[in-house]
């Protein structure tokens, strides 16, 4: 799939390049869809600009692969997506903000009703029109963010006065500990979800995010809502990542220089050269999504980049616009001024960097900079 995306400036003027492979997103969706029973549907979470990779490119690839149901977080994202995909089913995970029901009807988007108040608002709308409009009902099975409590859910779902004509198009819940499949919370949530939804056998059910899809058939129900795995992220912390990489971030080498033993590198002078070093300064920093917590000090190692198969550890603090890399052991011919080095991508997994930055790869993806050249195509 090719998507014409025009950068406003010539390539050589950018500090770095962000390459995104929509075909890999499509392949990842096809892989996850293949894990599901043929009766179950594979949807896609495309909130936050499709986890930072670009809503338009991601949804075009997903739709072409066969995906027809999409989850966003907020109504503005849903309206943007509606303009791109006129006939897709679109759910808004954050549910019904006050006074917004009319917008949902106008754009044919569906709220995921996350509280009794939201369900009552929606029911009032349906009563006044004397028909049901499609909406999901969210039941909280233990994460304690959004969702009716199991008791509220069971009471509301059998209260015809409250519901009026409302027939939910989906009942869903969300896993708190999917990234660690052995956590006992997963089974507890699964069993509670089965129990509270049992009386409503004709309403489709959804529990699985990416991790839920990979955890096996018990978690699949009628519809799965993967996000991170579509974008190459690591949904399960304790297993190897089966997904194709989707994103590559490269930064341009500005200068390569020597640092004498005993001198310090970067803001705060927290990193001392323990031997004579060669370092390369590249044009990407925390303003480009290179999370500052992956900085290195004398006490704690930081993240790394890869240059032609050679590891180049981050030296010192990550600045807003640049990072210093230890290239002492990288062959000189790979260190040309102006060359691009991989900061994140097929050989620098976001999940690995995230371990140094005390975060998760989701944060790396959704922080991807707006200052790079953007290329949609294979991650060559
Ligand atoms: C974001 C989100 C998803 C997708 O989760 P991943 O871990 O990215 O697969 C699914 N369901 C809900 C409710 C979400 O908020």
Q: Pairing-aware structural class of the strands and helices?
A: alpha/beta
Number-wise, the strands total: 19
Count of runs of 4 or more consecutive helical residues: 12
Rounded to the nearest angstrom, the radius of gyration is 24 Å
CATH class of the largest domain: Alpha Beta
Bound molecules: pyridoxal-5'-phosphate
CATH homology-level superfamily of the largest domain: Alanine racemase
Largest sheet: 8 strands, mixed
User: What's the overall average pLDDT, rounded?
Assistant: 97
Considering DSSP H and I runs of 4 or more, what fraction of the residues is helical?
Answer: 25-40%
Give start-end ranges of low-pLDDT stretches.
Answer: none
Q: Would you kindly provide a written description of the structure presented here, covering whatever features stand out?
A:
- The chain is of the alpha/beta class and 380 residues long.
- The protein folds into 2 domains: 210 residues, Alpha-Beta Barrel (TIM Barrel); 130 residues, Lyase, Ornithine Decarboxylase, Chain A, domain 1.
- The chain contains 12 helices and 19 strands.
- Helix 1 crosses helix 3.
- The two termini are 15 Å apart.
- 48% of the residues are buried.
- The protein binds pyridoxal-5'-phosphate.
- Pyridoxal-5'-phosphate binds next to loops.
- The site of pyridoxal-5'-phosphate has 12 residues, from loops.
- One of its GO terms (molecular function) is alanine racemase activity.
- Its EC number is 5.1.1.1.
